[in-house]
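G., the chain you wanted modeled:
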Amino acid sequence: MLLSMGTVFALVDGEEFELYRNDGPEREPRLEKLASPDLEATNFSAGARNKDKISRFTAGAPKDREKRLDESAHAAAVTVWLNRQVQSGAIERLVIIADPRSLGEMRRHYHKDLRKVLVGELHRTMTGRPPAEIVKVLQAAS
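Predicted structure as tokens:
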């Protein structure tokens, strides 16, 4: 995966959102952590379609349903924020690294402009990992 200078990396899971920018050359990427915005998850209908996937016979189903709704709303809020950053020109190249469920929800909310600047996706949970490990995983994904 190309890690060209200036590329922004969004790491997302059901609860966390981290941003990095490559400040080094492509051959020697150096991820610098950026401030992540405080997002308010308001689109709780985003995960509503998933409620039927939880069996009514599963113990704790209401708790699971609520957690999934929260995670889906978080993924939708991250995507709305990324869409705005792309449309304002603040992000010109983007890589999204997210757990499979979050990535699936995010894809539903991608704006066409975000799709144009998206240079890669990786369905993996990488939040909380050191930048060197993130780079190693991205380089292995090439």
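The mean pLDDT is 86.

Shout if anything looks off.
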